[in-house]
């Protein structure tokens, strides 16, 4: 799809030759417990500029075609992490995925992220995800008296955990993990990434506690190194590497 | 703008079984994490199991490939294997130790791998427990039986 506008004009007789719009089929997995106990695929054909994002297409469907379509989004610019969904079988943020990048000539499938309870359409229950996040204590733990000024840190010390500070808790990684699909009691990549952010922070003194938590049955040792999380992360965090660094820290601290 | 509804959602022969006051049960994933999820055992067992898989794997590459080479390739291949061949090899303590190490490492490596598979895929606690008990029983039986044979092997048995 290098030149989508010119290629697709012929398929849409109503559009003028200069129109950037093309007709795209969105195949969305719908679930409404107030209507049925089963999820179903539903097709929507809309005309849209392929340089727009999947989120724009969802808006167009919700606002102009079917107001019952339910999904989460807040900032719509890849920061809040509300609109992670499974687009063409891959976890992505709908607000960062351009339609031209995911082959709009075929139907584009959109479904809720896997491994969490679907409440309606694309909305899932995030409680188990945030429970795992809370369980790794994602906050600064220190001992002794508070300093009277900032807790200073060298640029190198800050660089050590820079990658894992980028997490927006969208759950794209955790809900792409095959271990998490089958056993949701596994902490999952996102919780480990956020533990990593504090374990390797030179100002933090709770690293040993967090390592102890991640050393357990549902901790880092369940990671099967499939790299699904690294592929899914919309912020480009090297998730599997972070998990690997926690494993290494555990081994080197125990021996 | 055209809509193409593949089917009206959920209407079973025109009448829906569910409405706002009686919603259908949501589709839950197996074993989700809650505030009551059991807290840790505070042991290093999982770490040792993970390390054991890596280390035993490296040793097994040497042991198993050497074993296959001797048994199946060198010196006439598989046709030479018989009671006399085994008796001749186990007369040497070196091959006794080789086979013993291979037996123990391969059995524990495989058993730990299956334990991981059970942990990943068994959804109910009862299923997990009994599958693991079956696995541990089979492993202990095989390891003990093999060890017994290696140490009590009598080449003069008739």
TrEMBL record, chain A:
<dbReference type="Pfam" id="PF13085">
    <property type="entry name" value="Fer2_3"/>
</dbReference>
<dbReference type="InterPro" id="IPR036010">
    <property type="entry name" value="2Fe-2S_ferredoxin-like_sf"/>
</dbReference>
<dbReference type="InterPro" id="IPR001041">
    <property type="entry name" value="2Fe-2S_ferredoxin-type"/>
</dbReference>
<dbReference type="GO" id="GO:0006099">
    <property type="term" value="P:tricarboxylic acid cycle"/>
</dbReference>
<comment type="pathway">
    <text>Carbohydrate metabolism; tricarboxylic acid cycle.</text>
</comment>
<dbReference type="InterPro" id="IPR017900">
    <property type="entry name" value="4Fe4S_Fe_S_CS"/>
</dbReference>
<keyword id="KW-0560">Oxidoreductase</keyword>
<keyword id="KW-0816">Tricarboxylic acid cycle</keyword>
<comment type="similarity">
    <text>Belongs to the succinate dehydrogenase/fumarate reductase iron-sulfur protein family.</text>
</comment>
<dbReference type="InterPro" id="IPR004489">
    <property type="entry name" value="Succ_DH/fum_Rdtase_Fe-S"/>
</dbReference>
<keyword id="KW-0003">3Fe-4S</keyword>
<keyword id="KW-0001">2Fe-2S</keyword>
<dbReference type="InterPro" id="IPR025192">
    <property type="entry name" value="Succ_DH/fum_Rdtase_N"/>
</dbReference>
<dbReference type="InterPro" id="IPR017896">
    <property type="entry name" value="4Fe4S_Fe-S-bd"/>
</dbReference>
<keyword id="KW-0408">Iron</keyword>
<keyword id="KW-0479">Metal-binding</keyword>
<dbReference type="InterPro" id="IPR012675">
    <property type="entry name" value="Beta-grasp_dom_sf"/>
</dbReference>
<dbReference type="Pfam" id="PF13237">
    <property type="entry name" value="Fer4_10"/>
</dbReference>
<dbReference type="GO" id="GO:0022904">
    <property type="term" value="P:respiratory electron transport chain"/>
</dbReference>
<keyword id="KW-0004">4Fe-4S</keyword>
<protein>
    <recommendedName>
        <fullName>Succinate dehydrogenase iron-sulfur subunit</fullName>
        <ecNumber>1.3.5.1</ecNumber>
    </recommendedName>
</protein>
<feature type="domain" description="4Fe-4S ferredoxin-type">
    <location>
        <begin position="157"/>
        <end position="179"/>
    </location>
</feature>
TrEMBL record, chain B:
<keyword id="KW-0812">Transmembrane</keyword>
<keyword id="KW-1133">Transmembrane helix</keyword>
<dbReference type="GO" id="GO:0046872">
    <property type="term" value="F:metal ion binding"/>
</dbReference>
<keyword id="KW-0408">Iron</keyword>
<dbReference type="GO" id="GO:0016020">
    <property type="term" value="C:membrane"/>
</dbReference>
<protein>
    <submittedName>
        <fullName>Succinate dehydrogenase</fullName>
    </submittedName>
</protein>
<keyword id="KW-0349">Heme</keyword>
<feature type="transmembrane region" description="Helical">
    <location>
        <begin position="51"/>
        <end position="74"/>
    </location>
</feature>
<keyword id="KW-0472">Membrane</keyword>
<dbReference type="InterPro" id="IPR034804">
    <property type="entry name" value="SQR/QFR_C/D"/>
</dbReference>
<feature type="transmembrane region" description="Helical">
    <location>
        <begin position="133"/>
        <end position="153"/>
    </location>
</feature>
<feature type="transmembrane region" description="Helical">
    <location>
        <begin position="94"/>
        <end position="112"/>
    </location>
</feature>
<dbReference type="InterPro" id="IPR000701">
    <property type="entry name" value="SuccDH_FuR_B_TM-su"/>
</dbReference>
<dbReference type="Pfam" id="PF01127">
    <property type="entry name" value="Sdh_cyt"/>
</dbReference>
<keyword id="KW-0479">Metal-binding</keyword>
């Amino acid at each position: 799809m290098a030149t989508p506008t010119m290629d697709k004009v012929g398929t849409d007789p109503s559009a003028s030759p200069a129109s950037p719009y093309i007709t795209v089929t969105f195949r969305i997995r719908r679930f409404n417990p107030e209507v049925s106990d089963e999820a179903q695929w539903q097709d929507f054909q809309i005309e849209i500029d392929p340089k727009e994002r999947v989120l724009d297409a969802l808006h167009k469907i919700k606002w102009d075609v079917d107001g019952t379509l339910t999904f989460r989004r807040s900032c719509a610019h890849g920061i809040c992490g509300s609109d992670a969904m499974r687009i063409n079988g891959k976890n992505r943020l709908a607000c960062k995925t351009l339609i031209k990048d995911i082959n709009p000539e075929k139907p584009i499938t959109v479904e809720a992220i896997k491994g969490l309870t679907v409440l309606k359409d694309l909305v899932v229950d995030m409680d188990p995800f945030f429970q795992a996040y809370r369980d790794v204590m994602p906050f600064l733990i220190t001992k002794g008296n508070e300093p009277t000024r900032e807790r200073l840190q060298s640029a190198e010390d800050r660089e050590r955990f820079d990658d894992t500070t980028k997490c927006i808790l969208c759950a794209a990684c955790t809900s792409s993990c095959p271990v998490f699909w089958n056993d949701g009691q596994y902490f999952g990549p996102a919780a480990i990434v956020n533990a990593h952010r504090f374990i390797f922070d030179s100002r933090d003194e709770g690293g040993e506690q967090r390592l102890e938590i991640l050393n357990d049955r549902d901790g880092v040792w369940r990671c099967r190194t499939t790299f699904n999380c690294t592929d899914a992360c919309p912020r480009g965090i090297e998730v599997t590497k972070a998990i690997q660094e926690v494993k290494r820290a555990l081994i080197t601290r125990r021996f | 703008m055209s809509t193409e509804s593949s089917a009206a959602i959920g209407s079973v022969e025109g009448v829906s079984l569910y409405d706002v006051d009686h919603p259908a049960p949501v589709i839950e994933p197996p074993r989700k994490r809650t505030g009551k999820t059991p807290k840790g055992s505070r042991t290093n067992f999982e770490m040792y199991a993970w390390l054991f898989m890596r280390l035993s794997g490296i040793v097994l590459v040497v042991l198993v490939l050497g074993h296959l080479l001797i048994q199946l390739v060198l010196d006439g291949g598989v046709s030479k294997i018989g009671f006399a061949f085994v008796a001749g090899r186990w007369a040497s303590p070196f091959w006794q130790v080789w086979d013993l190490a291979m037996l123990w490492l391969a059995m524990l490596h495989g058993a730990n791998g299956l334990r991981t598979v059970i942990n990943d895929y068994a959804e109910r606690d009862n299923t997990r427990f009994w599958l693991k008990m079956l696995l541990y029983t089979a492993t202990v039986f095989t390891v003990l039986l093999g060890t017994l044979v290696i140490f009590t092997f009598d080449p003069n048995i008739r």
